[in-house]
């Protein structure tokens, strides 16, 4: 079965598969040795896992440079530590394995703060908000979750979109899973699917290709994203939280919001159910 093969599975299996995909990859990799801010400063470089195909959060520009909201935040964190930064673009499903295997020091990678993921990685305080929707052409009629049953829906594999579409779509809905956001968006543009599970920027990206052709049909959940370090890494978690407090307080995060999100920075919650911001 290829990556783009259509799958229609029992609802229970879909829900289980999506839940496991969010957290289980970390269990398949060998845990890396804990790293501290002092060690990062000693080596002179912070290696950040980031998305390379999901503007405006993280993307590689035409010159091959990593840009986006997460890139700007990551560069500020490296500056705070007094080191250079190296970005490692990662596919959605590879983010947690890359961190737990030690390929990267930290993730600024559109990581929604979910209890399933908190079993595999340590989240920081939230620094950005997002929401998950069903996106389809304007002419496609979708008013309720039940209407999804008549559509072929694309999602990035092991993403929050994957979990939310799996949870909310009727039993028997055809869901196609792709490697990343770019492939998912292209699947809708090319007609491979009739709708996609998207984030708050999918409509903007789709309409850039086919002006005024797409819209959000349903909203499933609003989320907050945090930076991720490995479980038990107390010092780097504390340094990350102190950094987030600093850029919220001094207005630097609001400037990044204005640059990339084009909306005011929201207030961030003091807690997220099932997710700890600090190493216990």
TrEMBL record:
Record has Signal as a keyword: yes
Transmembrane segments: none
UniProt keyword Signal present: yes
Signal peptide: 1-23
InterPro entries: Solute-binding_3/MltF_N (IPR001638), TAT_signal (IPR006311)
SUPFAM superfamilies per the UniProt record, alphabetical: Periplasmic binding protein-like II
SMART domains linked: PBPb
Protein name: Amino acid ABC transporter substrate-binding protein (PAAT family)
Organism: Bosea psychrotolerans
């Amino acid at each position: 079965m290829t990556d783009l093969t259509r799958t229609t599975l029992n609802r229970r299996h879909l829900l289980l598969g999506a839940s496991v995909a969010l957290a289980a990859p970390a269990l398949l990799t060998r845990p890396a040795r804990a790293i501290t801010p002092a060690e990062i400063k000693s080596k002179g470089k912070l290696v950040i896992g980031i998305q390379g195909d999901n503007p405006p959060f993280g993307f590689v520009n035409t010159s091959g440079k990593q840009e986006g909201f997460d890139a700007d935040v990551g560069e500020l964190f490296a500056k705070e530590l007094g080191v250079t930064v190296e970005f490692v673009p990662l596919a959605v499903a590879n983010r947690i394995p890359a961190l737990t295997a030690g390929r990267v020091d930290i993730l600024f990678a559109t990581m929604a703060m979910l209890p399933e993921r908190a079993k595999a990685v340590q989240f920081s305080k939230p620094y950005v908000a997002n929401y998950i929707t069903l996106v389809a052409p304007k002419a496609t009629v979708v008013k309720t979750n039940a209407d999804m049953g008549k559509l072929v829906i694309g999602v990035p594999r092991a993403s929050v979109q994957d979990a939310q579409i799996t949870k909310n779509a009727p039993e028997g809905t055809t869901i196609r899973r792709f490697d990343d956001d770019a492939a998912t968006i292209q699947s809708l543009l090319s007609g491979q699917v009739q709708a996609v599970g998207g984030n708050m920027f999918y409509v903007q990206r789709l309409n850039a290709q086919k002006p005024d052709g797409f819209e959000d049909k349903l909203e499933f959940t609003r989320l907050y994203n945090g930076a991720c370090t490995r479980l038990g890494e107390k010092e780097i978690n504390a340094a990350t939280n102190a950094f987030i407090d600093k850029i919220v307080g001094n207005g630097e995060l609001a400037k990044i919001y204005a640059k990339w999100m084009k909306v005011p920075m929201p207030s961030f919650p003091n807690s997220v159910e099932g997710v700890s911001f600090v190493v216990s």
